Amino acid sequence: MASDAPLMVIDGAGVVVEWSRHAEELLGHTAGDLVGQPATSLVRPTPVASGHAVGREQVALCHRSGRAVDADLRMRPWLRKDGSVAWAVFQVPADENMVSGVGTTVLEALFTQAPIPMYVLDPTLRIAACNAAAQAMWKQVPEQIVGSRLGDVYDFPAADDVQSILRGVLDGDASSSDHVARFYARNASEAGCTDCVSVFRIEDRQGAVQGVAALVVDVTQCEQVRAHSHVVNAVRERVGQSLDLVTTCQDLVDGLVPGFADVAVVEVVDSLVHGQDLPPGPVGRDVPLRRAAFRNSAGEQAVQAHPIGDVRSLPSSTPYAQTLTDLKPRVVALDDTPSWLAADPARARAIRASGVCTLLAVPLTLRGTVLGLLSLYRTKRGDCFEEQEVGLAMELAAYTAVCLDNARRFAREYTIAATIQQHALAPCRPSQTGVQTAHLLVPGTQGAGSCFDALSLPSARTALVIGEVAGQGIHAAATMGQVRTAVQTLVGLDLDADELLARLNDTVTSLARERAALPADEPLRRQPLTATCVYAIYDPLDRTCSIARAGHPPPVLVHPDGTTEILDLPNGPPLGSAGEAPFAQTTLSLTQGSVLAFYTTSLVSALSSNGPADLDSLRRLLVPGRRPLQDICDDVVNRLGSGAPSGDAVLLLARAGGFPTDRVATWDLDNQPVAVGQARERTRRRLAMWGVDDETAYTTELIVSELVTNAIRYGAPPVQLRLIKDRTLTCEVRDNGPSAPHLRHARTVDEGGRGLFISAQLSDDWGVRYTSDTGGKTVWAEQALPAQDPANDIASYGAV
Fold first, then answer.
1. pLDDT tens across 159-192, in order?
2. Most buried residue, 129, 403, 633, 708, by most Cβ within 10 Å?
């Protein structure tokens, strides 16, 4: 802007009427010299500069010394104090003059030198001017472009959208706007490219809208880089997150469609799915490939050549087989039906139905070994895979091959671990008299360390056990087998639940010490060995259940009326953990028909939508509890769905029942030698009532005689005899003596000491069970009975 104070004021006759101090400094004249003098005395003619129009006169200010003064002057009307109107002359500041000059220079450069096409549109949005770059692009003179609309020059895919952008900027709805799209130039030989159109409004100094300017920048390479980066990020974010081979393949096609291709198919060597090692080098013609993943941008209704999971060999004449032979990618045009498609009619039908025009076949290889084939298709004509895109596909295929090999290694280890677990776990054991059991096991992707069992105990009792070993894979499965063997050994000692966990803890602690002693470079050494366990003993004769747990979730109890509760049981530390906290046993009285549900945390997590601690989903599936237990297990499996949980999902169900009273006989005996004969007589009569054969009955009498004799001679009153007829015949003698019976081999001259030895020889199994509340003991012996009718066993379970 000019200074607020004028240099001079000139009247209508051109006479200087006012002179400023600034004018005196600029031109050297005083006010006395010039006021009243014509203004023409201050200027003199100068030569016309080159480039100016002919006939245009140029003058310069003249200093008092005679030299020319370079100054930019402006004039505007000036109201004097006497009311007359004169003309004020102002000097434009040097900085404003410089900016004005720069702006003019830049504008000229944009129209003559800038490589970016620029168009000036008038208020009707027609081209009023264009720069040299725009003219060179279309090989046209300005007269052929001026007057056209921007849409007449460019083939916009969405012309209405671009027109709306131009109109919005012109009307002031937006100061500027960028629109990126793939454009095609009309009347140009170049193929379509991706351009960015930047639009801004043109206004004069008074703010009047003169039109809009549009700059069209070719961003084809930038957009390709951006699109490729987006594809790479999409693939890397998805692929490799799962160790499941099929999921990895599906993640790959999901990352490539629709950003990179319209259709994607992944086929892998079939033996890869089973975790087997693959031979190096190209695959043979007869090697079967399994279709592992498919994605079409058209959606699920798209036609597939073969369903997912289909296994077949590739015809040798196809580019697919050739790619797997020389391990080189191939770009094949499918505009016309190639002759090689006749070798694969199903694939030919799918290609025609999908309308694909270009195929890119890329091998999935790792260290010279073929893992599979990636087939990519595009449906737009002319949208061929360029060399840079082929390189990108090879890069993504190499990354995916590494992930597939990791999945293969995991599948192999998982198969081994599952096999170890399967052989370590016993087959489904039949339900015992007085209790029904059922179970389910869904191996997890990171499991193989879970165990469960239902074991028969003397006196018609049943031991229920479930546990988990920390870790995963082969090592967890092997450790689980060791722990389960220890459990079965300890169960044979007929220990209380809390004592069994204490001894099992000693075993796990010993295994943990062995692991800690491994070499420092052994990875297993860095994995702490801990385990959790719940051990329960159900006695159907008095319908009680004694339970102890070590770091494992408490069981759920389902009452006959359909209500459920999570048992509030003392929780001991996990097995093998530091410290020697005691394990507590809780004894519950169960109503006939009640169901105990033992489970793993992985099962609860897989069923729950509200977090791993939410048991509501499992509790809802357990009721009503009167259904067959296997039906409950089936409902749980259906709820889990087809996906494998992260850890082993295990459920062990046990329904409490009563034991038939007519199969139990109990007598209190006098603490006198005469009681031995009475016990034999009572035993003889009861076995005859039960229909036991004479040989078994005679053996039982001998066992009863020896056990009762020992109890009277070495024990303490009261003495009690109990016979139980189940799948086996059990003889129990209970007394309150604290001394432990000792099996020894008597010498020839000894008169006694043979009782327990004789009982052990005559029975199939024998043992001692101690009573913690009274301090007494029970010595028992079991004999096998001839096979019974299974219908009788089922009927003996009792009403539930």
1. 667 777 788 888 876 655 556 555 555 544 445 5
2. 708
